[in-house]
Amino acid sequence: MKKTVLVSGGAGYIGSHTAVELVAAGYNVVIADNLSNSDRSGVEGVRRITGVEVPFVEVDCCDKAAFAKLFEQYAFDSVIHFAAFKAVGESVADPMKYYRNNLLSMMNVVDLMREYGRHNIVFSSSATVYGEADELPVTERTPRKPATSAYGNTKQMCEDILRDAVAAYDGLRGIALRYFNPIGAHPSALIGELPRGVPQNLVPYITQTAAGVRECLSIFGDDYPTEDGSCLRDYIDIVDLAKAHVAAIDRMVTGDGENYEIFNVGTGRAVSVFELVRTFERVNDLSLNYKVAPRRAGDVVAVWADTERANKVLGWRAERSLDETLRSAWAWERYVRKL
Ligand code: UD1
């Protein structure tokens, strides 16, 4: 019988791509989202790509009573918990908004899983937990650094909530996936990233600049101690990232592994901001308006993943090339802007 997975935050960028890959892998999917930073088009995109009327419930995971109804209605045994706020700057300006939303929704997931006798939780963590790491690439054993934003702190705290809950309560299992920098869009261009307002992340800023929505991309710093002076990151294709979630669910459903596990989800390749911009221009045959600007507060110089554990233990690896991913990012922007 097909197993069912609840995808909280499933109307959003990573959640919608993951819903598509879960359906492709033979799972039933239920999407829950409060649409605070997404809209129904994410769900519609999932339905169009898969040809399945994936059920969607508009609910806030912080509203435990409303969230509980979903557990009554659907017999899922696994949850992928994406639903969270994710803007670093906003979290520094309004930390309580982040602590309340991100921690409460995580605690409600854990509590309801226990109350309703459900078992597997995948949590969306982030490479932000490594901060300015002492060793590169970072492995899952590389020590976490104190968070420099409330957002980053909620990722660390939610990892710890999951670890402790799984240790204490029989039958509960958890996997934390530490994402590096997710970019790109589904090859169909029917789902992708929809930032509200001015994009904070590099690739949406690039695509909006190419589309003429933004005048000029600012490259934050060209005087870092790297080869070309710009920061190094590990840009992971969104479809590859989505597939890592399927691998994590497969692993828990088959009962393999420890009760609580952590995996880096990246490519293992460090790419500079300049290299990313140049690649975007080349593969899409356009020239981007950009300038060098001062460093952005809070940026780390370099972080990229050691992916050996995910490759060997999870049996997953990143497959899409950066060229392909950056073509998909531009195709999505053109679709959104009707260009
Ligand atoms: C950021 C967050 C990280 C979060 C992730 C989610 C910070 C400090 N970190 O990662 O916690 O998990 O997003 O996706 O905000 N850049 C430019 N110009 C721009 C935008 C970015 O040069 O307009 C540069 C940045 O300086 C950085 C690189 O591009 O070197 C990537 O930036 P971004 O996409 O914001 O991701 P991170 O900062 O790595």
Keywords:
41% helix, 7-stranded parallel sheet, Rossmann fold, globular, 339 residues, alpha/beta, 2 domains, UDP-galactose 4-epimerase, domain 1, binds uridine-diphosphate-N-acetylglucosamine
CATH class of the largest domain: Alpha Beta
Strands of the largest sheet, in order across it?
A: 3-2-1-4-5-6-11
User: Which outline best applies?
Assistant: globular
CATH-assigned homologous superfamily of the largest domain:
NAD(P)-binding Rossmann-like Domain
Compact summary:
By secondary structure, the chain is an alpha/beta fold. The chain contains 11 helices and 13 strands.
Question: Any chance you could write out the topology, listing elements then pairs?
Answer:
Blueprint: E1 4-8, H1 13-24, E2 28-33, H2 40-50, E3 56-58, H3 64-73, E4 78-81, H4 88-93, H5 95-115, E5 120-126, H6 150-168, E6 173-179, E7 181-183, H7 202-210, E8 217-220, E9 232-233, E10 235-237, H8 238-253, E11 260-265, E12 271-272, H9 273-284, E13 290-293, H10 308-314, H11 322-337
Parallel strand pairs: 1-2, 1-4, 2-3, 4-5, 5-6, 6-11, 7-10, 8-13
Antiparallel strand pairs: 9-12
The protein binds uridine-diphosphate-N-acetylglucosamine.
